[in-house]
């Protein structure tokens, strides 16, 4: 199946998919590559056809926190909003797993809204999904203990990769959770002692 056809779950027509391919440019990225940085201009919106992106927010003190993931068939609603209003990006998007991405120019984004009602439906569905995910982040930060947030993040990464072996550092986890590395290392050690995970060099295995 064509990777882009995964968007069909949003009731996107074959005609619109053909237009997306016609007007978009496709690029391949490796894990760790930066797709969009904070305070940069948004000239096109990314549509992931393979792999996963993670969208992060950086605070003034340098701390980061994971907002949400973008999977195949999805786009970044923050890029869409920033581009539509000609505003600088308030987030950064980084490749989590090797990815292939279509970049649709902002003028075509506006054109599709006028010509294809299913495109607007696609955008609204993504907006709704991201809003719910951001509410989950707010609730987690405000009401959930860090050890529960850490385990939840590990489980989410397991679902995304389809593997119980995660190649990730304590520093990376700390950045995504918006906390200190020493905190993550301490909690991971506790999880290992309880038999929940097994720790290796830059590797965590969920048991």
Task: Outline the structure in words.
The protein is of the alpha+beta class. The chain folds into 2 domains: 3-141, Jelly Rolls; 144-206, Arc Repressor Mutant, subunit A, CATH 1.10.10. 44% of the residues lie in helices and 26% in strands. The protein contains 7 helices and 8 strands. The strands form 2 sheets. Strands 1, 2, 3, 4 and 5 form a 5-stranded antiparallel sheet that branches. A hairpin with a 2-residue loop joins strand 7 (197-200) and strand 8 (203-206). It is elongated and about 55 Å long. The two termini are 33 Å apart. The model has no long low-confidence stretch (mean pLDDT 86).
Per-chain topology:
Elements: H1 14-23, E1 25-29, E2 34-36, E3 44-58, E4 64-70, H2 77-84, E5 92-105, H3 106-115, H4 117-143, H5 146-161, E6 165-166, H6 170-177, H7 181-193, E7 197-200, E8 203-206
Antiparallel strand pairs: 1-5, 2-5, 3-4, 3-5, 6-8, 7-8
Helix pairs in contact: 3-4, 6-7
Q: What's the structural domain tally? A: 2
Strand content range: 25-35%
How far is the N terminus from the C terminus? 33 Å
Radius of gyration: 18 Å
The oligomerization state is: single chain
Globular, elongated, flat, extended or rod-shaped: what is the shape?
Answer: elongated
Mean pLDDT: 86
Counted by DSSP, the helix tally is 7
Helix and strand string, N-terminal first? HEEEEHEHHHEHHEE
> Which fold name corresponds to the CATH topology of the largest domain?
Jelly Rolls
What's the β-strand tally?
A: 8
Uncertain residue ranges = none
Concise summary:
This protein is of the alpha+beta class and 207 residues long. Helices cover 44% and strands 26% of the residues. The mean pLDDT is 86.
């Amino acid at each position: 199946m064509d990777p882009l056809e995964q968007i069909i779950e949003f009731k996107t027509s074959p005609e619109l998919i053909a237009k997306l391919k016609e007007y978009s440019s496709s690029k391949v990225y490796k894990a760790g590559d930066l797709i969009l940085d904070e305070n940069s201009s948004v000239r096109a919106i990314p549509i992931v056809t393979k792999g996963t992106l993670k969208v992060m927010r950086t605070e003034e003190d340098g701390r980061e926190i994971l907002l949400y993931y973008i999977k195949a068939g999805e786009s970044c609603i923050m890029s869409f909003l920033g581009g539509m209003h000609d505003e600088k990006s308030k987030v950064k998007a980084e490749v989590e797993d090797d990815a292939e991405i279509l970049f649709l120019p902002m003028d075509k984004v506006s054109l599709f809204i006028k010509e294809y009602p299913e495109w607007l439906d696609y955008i609204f569905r993504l907006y709704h999904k991201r809003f719910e995910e951001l509410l989950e982040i707010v609730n987690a930060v405000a009401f959930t203990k860090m050890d529960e947030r850490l385990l939840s993040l590990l489980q989410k990464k397991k679902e995304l990769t389809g593997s119980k072996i995660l190649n990730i550092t304590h520093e990376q986890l700390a950045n995504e959770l918006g906390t200190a590395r020493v905190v993550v290392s301490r909690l991971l050690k506790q999880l290992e002692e309880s038999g929940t995970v097994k720790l290796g060099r830059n590797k965590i295995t969920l048991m």
